[in-house]
Automatic annotation (TrEMBL):
Keywords: Signal
Name recorded for this polypeptide: PBP domain-containing protein
PANTHER family: PERIPLASMIC PHOSPHATE BINDING COMPONENT OF PHOSPHATE ABC TRANSPORTER, PHOSPHATE-BINDING PROTEIN PSTS
Cited InterPro entries: PBP_domain, Phosphate_ABC_transporter
Domain PBP: 19-264
Species in which this protein is naturally found: Flavobacterium akiainvivens
Length: 293
């Protein structure tokens, strides 16, 4: 008796797993500023679904959008949905996107060492972004001119173009953190999860940094006017620099991208986000069993 395998194989003889919501291979482009928390979700997803292989590529927001409009990727993680103009690229072909809001992120303002003043105002940050002199900030360090962080800050400051003076760009968040640590007096702005969950290489560096409290005159808080990017302050709306994290799917079918988005939005994924220090879209409940004696 001869048994014939019905499994498809690639050129190297490896079995090709058909794609489903929990199996197959897919590349997901991720906004580098939220890299750590998405890596955590992907790791657990892989452990639960061993036939799923998500290739997480961390890059800038502009690179992600360009890849989507070039039809080279269908699933991404960004801190904004596509604009109407960008989305027309897909809708004109009859494709309906699936946009999943999974968490709220914050941008941390960091400096090296233990400064005497551990607060900073949004007004001083906006001055630098507008090219005006600031008594508080001599060097403002940003991750990358093509990043979602820079785009967000420009929107908040109401500027179309950033000045060349007093702003220093790095390639990514890891390089930003290292630069700030090596240049006392400089102030950087980075996704808070890079501080909450630093890579092993950055652990010691992050321990030497101070996260500054930022003012929020619009916050309806009794007494306090300066806030750090803690989970509670993000949830209460006290911290001024927050943004939403989305998983965007333009697959057009129920594939692995949709499965990953659903997992991130479901209870296990939301617990991973909660543990990271970010604010999940749905805060998981805790059941307490009361035993009567």
């Amino acid at each position: 008796m001869v048994l014939l395998s019905c499994h498809k194989t690639d050129a190297n003889g490896n079995v090709v797993v058909p794609e489903s919501m929990t199996a197959g291979k897919i590349t997901v482009l991720v906004d580098e500023s939220v890299q750590p928390v998405i890596e955590s979700v992907v790791d657990v997803f892989h452990s639960v679904y061993p036939n799923a292989h998500i290739n997480q590529v961390n890059t800038t927001e502009n690179e992600i959008v360009n890849a989507m409009l070039g039809d080279s990727v269908t699933t991404v993680v960004m801190t904004r949905p596509l604009s109407k103009k960008e989305e027309n690229h897909f809708t004109k072909h009859g494709m309906t996107p699936e946009v999943t809001f999974v968490a709220t992120d914050a941008l941390a303002v960091i400096t090296a060492g233990k400064p005497a003043d551990t607060t900073i105002t949004t007004a001083e940050i906006f001055k630098v972004l507008k090219g005006e002199p600031s008594a508080r900030i001599s060097k403002l360090v940003l991750d990358n001119p093509n990043s979602g962080t820079v785009r967000y800050l420009m929107e908040q400051a109401g500027v179309q173009k950033l000045p060349v003076n007093n702003i220093i760009y790095q390639k990514n968040s890891a390089e930003l953190i290292t630069f700030v640590n090596n240049n006392p007096g400089s102030i950087g702005i980075v996704g808070v999860d890079w501080v909450n969950e630093p890579t092993p290489q950055l652990q010691k560096v992050v321990e030497n940094l101070t996260v500054l409290a930022v003012d929020n005159v619009k916050a309806k808080s009794e007494g306090a006017t300066f806030f750090k990017p803690s989970q509670s302050n993000i949830g209460a709306g006290f911290y001024p620099f927050t943004r939403k994290i989305y998983v965007l799917n333009y697959q057009g079918y129920k594939g692995l991208g949709i499965g990953f988005a659903n997992y991130t939005r479901a209870e296990v994924g939301q617990r991973i986000i909660l543990k990271s220090g970010l604010l999940p879209q749905d805060i998981p409940t805790r059941e307490i069993q009361i035993i009567k004696e």
